[in-house]
Amino acid sequence: MINAILVFNNHGKPRLVRFYRHLAEEAQQQILRDTFHMVLRRDEHVCNFLECGSLFGSPDCKLIYRHYATLYFVFCVDSSESELGILDLIQVFVETLDKCFENVCELDLIFHMDKVHYILQEVVIGGMVLETNMNEIVAQAEAQSKLEKAEVSGSVWGLERGAQVWAQGRLGSGYHAGASVLWGGGRRELVALRVSQPAHPQGKAHRVGAPHWGVQGAASMQVLLCCQG
Amino acid sequence: MALKMVKGSIDRMFDKNLQDLVRGIRNHKEDEAKYISQCIDEIKQELKQDNIAVKANAVCKLTYLQMLGYDISWAAFNIIEVMSASKFTFKRIGYLAASQCFHEGTDVIMLTTNQIRKDLSSPNQYDTGVALTGLSCFVTPDLARDLANDIMTLMSHTKPYIRKKAVLIMYKVFLKYPESLRPAFPRLKEKLEDPDPGVQSAAVNVICELARRNPKNYLSLAPLFFKLMTSSTNNWVLIKIIKLFGALTPLEPRLGKKLIEPLTNLIHSTSAMSLLYECVNTVIAVLISLSSGMPNHSASIQLCVQKLRILIEDSDQNLKYLGLLAMSKILKTHPKSVQSHKDLILQCLDDKDESIRLRALDLLYGMVSKKNLMEIVKKLMIHVDKAEGTTYRDELLTKIIDICSQSNYQYITNFEWYISILVELTRLEGTRHGHLIAAQMLDVAIRVKAIRKFAVSQMAMLLDNAHLIASNTQRNGICEVLYAAAWICGEFSEHLEEANQTLEAMLRPKVTTLPGHIQAVYVQNMVKLYASILQQKEQAGEKEAAQEITQLMIERLPQFVQSADLEVQERASCILQLIKYIQKLQVKEVPVAEEVIALFAGELNPVAPKAQKKVPVPEGLDLDAWINEPPSDSESEDEKPKTIFHDEEQRHSKPRHPEMDEEELARRREARKQEQANNPFYIKSSPSPQKRYQDTPGVEHIPVVQIDLSVPLKVPGMPMSDQYVKLEEERRHKQKLEKDKKKKKQKKEKRGKHHRHNSLHTESEEDIAPAHHVDIITEEMPENALPSDEDDKDPNDPYKALDIDLDKPLADSEKLPVQRHRNAEALKTPESEVPPVEKKSKKPKKKEKKHKEKEKDKGKKKEKEKKHKKEKEEKSKDKKKSKKKHHHSEEEMAESVQNGTLDDEPLPPMSSYRLLAENPYIKTTYDIQGNLQNDSQVTVSVIFENKSTSFLKSMELNVLDSLNTKMLRPEGSSVHDGIPVPFQLPPGISNEAQFVFTLQSIVMAQKLKGTLSFIVKNDEGSTHEKLDFKLHFSCASYLITTPCYR
Fold this sequence. Notes:
Chain A is of the alpha+beta class. Chain A has helices at 25-40, 83-101, 106-111, 113-121, 134-171, 218-228; strands at 2-9, 14-19, 49-51, 62-68, 71-77, 124-125, 128-129, 176-183, 190-196, 206-207. In chain A, helix 2 (83-101) packs parallel to helix 5 (134-171).
């Protein structure tokens, strides 16, 4: 069984904390700190195993870790896991992250903790190893993020439709408004509005612009529309 | 509609998302806590909104904050809301948060059961996957029971992705709900041969985890695993299987024999180090299990040791570490084959990696023999000198002591050497383990009688040089050895040659800078010294010298009387007075030495730490039974009804010992002595006070060999222990020569005779006899002490519950509970029973009616009789029904199982009693139920369990009311009065009492403080005890359970 998986950087800042046995938050942080201090003391070219004894209360508990650039990946396991096997598993996990994030670096882990968790969930669940084949892990992780994207773009459609209705209301019946979302990652959707005047023979579609909704929101859109009008 | 959506989206745009939160925290390095609390406030606002996207975003941020150590359990309900979102994106966020913060104590977790069940059966495999993953982290016994069947169904899902997850989660379910193991096991076994390698691997994984804890139940799977091992190419699976075999072989040696060949083949063929290492490990396990049966597996041992040597010599530190780890396993059974690699292991002590050094040290611990102990310890001493950093040096120190003292100093042939090693260790600066050295000194000096003289001389030297040891600082741990030194010198002062000088050393002013507890020992032991000097002088007739020494004490003791340490002060002032009195007597020329020394007469014997515990209760002895039936003294007792409490009450009156006359006592004592003398296992109280002035017979038979003290104590320029090593070598050489001579003689005589070898000891080891026959006094143990350490077992091992026989056929009662809709047909058919709930509610009504009838008119007897008849008829019908049903179920098993609702398969009782408070006397658990009749009341049922052997009475429960929740007290009593518990508790009995509370609001969780006061009555009298508790009303506890009908 794997008791815990911890990822932290060279300064002990947590990047991923996953315990497979419930512990109160303070206890988790304490273990994190202890682990960090134990691991930090060690030189580069020493073995990757550490007997932690009292850390989890069970005597056969071991820390198996790897150090990559600025990050430590620490697996806390008991005697039923093969030490070298877990070392390989850490490698697989890191390589998977590398594939999913395309050249993973600490920043990816900092800003996408949730995604890292989702990838980890394809490797280990409930303290037991689920999959060791990297291609399979990547495939499942990508299938799920695709599913998520499909759902998000669904909501983008709603946004487009909404924007269109909103613009139409402002412009009156002489104009025809069309909206499309250019980029919809998270909360900052770039919306492009095209406005055309069907009544005007020369009226062609104008691209209204790409207001940054997050900052000025609806107000800026209005301004842009006025300019065009 | 669309507009509303847009509005939601626009609102969302002004919220922070996870990335913003992270960025914000990074930009507020100075006031991070403040910034985060601000963010949490925002999150709380977001959670109040209707938009699920906003909520999900908030929960996602909370998950991040949880990683930073913030408690997010307050948002548990919102997390459940997000979990039940229809979109995968949000659902995933919710389950992730839940898996990070939910646990068995989360009370809203019971609300998730149906949601999880829905997700598990979702057509989208990723919904199912996410639910399984989440469940693996927060499954509770209730969830496990309710969902076991659903998960079991998923084990045969069409998608391997779901199958493998379901298989793994089953392990968690087994842990929480052991009853599910037997019904699910056949399917789990089936999955070992699943076409998908991932599912197969998962099944192997689960069975390995199960088998590791209770291997004997899984022996029957060995052939299947054997097949897998020879066919599988997946290293991960192979490693698991091989590890599993390692756990199985100790139980079935035949399996081991079969395994050796394929394993050695794997060792030769595989290129994967991880697999090779596990193979070696399992071969070792096999060899250990075989070691008694078959001796000719030396080839396999050689192969293992050889492979391990390659690992240890590898430049990869990981392999080196693992090699040493495996080596230590071989060591236990085949120490000889490891000992030949001593060079390699000693070399590892120089490694820069601490993990490796510690492993090597561990190995050394097992490698020592009488022959090489001195050499190994010498090497370690060199390392001690070289070691950088106190932690490693301390580790070395403890290891040296461990190595030497292991199994009752088994490997020490020369205790003079050991004492000098200990003395050398005192030169270590800044060690924390001074007390360890001190304990060893004391132990050796007490238990090895022959060494006392030498020990005393060394300790005297230590005392003399105390300034060197205690020079640096007060917190220097090494000064603890002075504690031992002072005690040894005092206790065994008869061996001291220059007692005067030692006493002088102990009285130095510098001593007052030592820690208090050491000074106290100093004070106590200088009197012992003083007493023996006094005696010496008196015997020699040197009265003046005796007076001089008394004067010295009187002059110097006041410095201790002024000590700030109470213990020191008390002892010193007491002793000062004593000595002043002695001085008075001395002036009158009264001989006092005899009396003074009598203060310290008698010898202290070591007692084993568990001595008392290990005394078994002899057969036929009932400790609770009366030795003599107590006379029924009072008449009042006769009047009492003979209740079940009769026995307990009797126990409280004092037992009367039969009076025996002196003669009888003496006779018995004599008989007992005789018996003890004939019992070889009885450790006689050593013919104790062996102070010289007491001329006790029986000392002679103790084989104490006088030590030749021609050895110079200090050899200039050379550490002392080395000297002993040399001497020991010479001695051994001589011994060997002598033995060889003897052997030649013996050989002639013994030829043809069977010679028995001890399998563990090498022959050369047997040859080495200890330098002097040291009489190690064993720690005193009571007669018939149990040899085993049964008390070391952990009674609440969670894996114990999984020790289930899996080969028995499955009984119907063991089937997993399946959530079914109440069978509508069952209600219609006449055979089926009326739901028991209804029945219960009917009966009291009838009784009530009857009652009314009696009161109202007695004339309508006929009618009543009719009713009676009716009732009788009904009853008989009922009986018939039940008979029929019984019959029916025998005939058509399958159907009855389907139909069976509540009666066939009662759901496991929801024991919702939670611990209220506990102390050595009493344990209280409680449960809160809503009151069906009165909305504003809840009933708290408290179970009181008497854990002591005393009688508990006058229990009174009081609670500090809050505005919202008040305890309902009898009218007229004030709010500060407690409510008496309406019963008393004899020992070991539990009973339940109910208390009613009134409530204002049910949307508020409450914690009420309270106290339970009671009187403990036992033989010695009665005491008043109190137990504080906190009564926790969660909102869920206000729920009223109502049976549902369709």
